[in-house]
Amino acid sequence: QEVDHQQDHQQDHQHNHKDQQQQQQPFQQEVDQQHKDQQQQDHQQHKDHEQQQHKEYHQQQQQPFHHHHQQQQQHQQRRHQQQQQQTLQWRQDLEQQHEHQEQEEYHHQQQQQ
Questions:
Q1: Which DSSP state fits 103?
Q2: Residue 33: its pLDDT value, please?
Q3: pLDDT < 70: residue spans in the chain
Q4: Per-residue confidence (pLDDT) for residue 31, from 0 to 100
Q5: I need a labelling partner for 23 at 20 to 30 A (CA). Which of 8, 33, 45, 99 fits?
């Protein structure tokens, strides 16, 4: 009696398993399809991007090289000056903060004595 029951149970189990496999199949195909679509899209975007870069490169090349170079130098110098100013400002701030802390600590020690 007990053994029969187990066999029934196994058959039931196998049957369920088959159903699950059949259900998974279409799902898997769908996922594959989505993946393919995605790859194609990526590929298309990549091509577009390359063409775009290519165009920009040509436009730059058509400008006289000298002109292009001068612009860059001016730009760099300007950026450099700004950075220096910022750094100076930053250092002054730091020093002020530091002095302030030292004064506070000094007062603190005085009070303790």
A1: H
A2: 80
A3: 1-27, 46, 54, 56-84, 107-108, 111-113
A4: 72
A5: 8
Q: What is the pLDDT of residue 101?
A: 75
In a domain, 29, yes or no: no
Per-residue pLDDT, 32: 79
CA–centroid distance for 89 within its chain: 32
CA torsion through residues 32, 38, 43, 46, sign: negative
Instruction: State the DSSP string of 31-95.
Output: HHHHHHHHHHHHHHHHHHHHHHHHHHHHHHHHS-HHHHHHHHHHHHHHHHHHHHHHHHHHHHHHH
> pLDDT at position 70, please?
57
Cα separation of 48 and 2, whole Å? 69
d(CA 78, CA 84): 10
| Domain count across the chain | 1
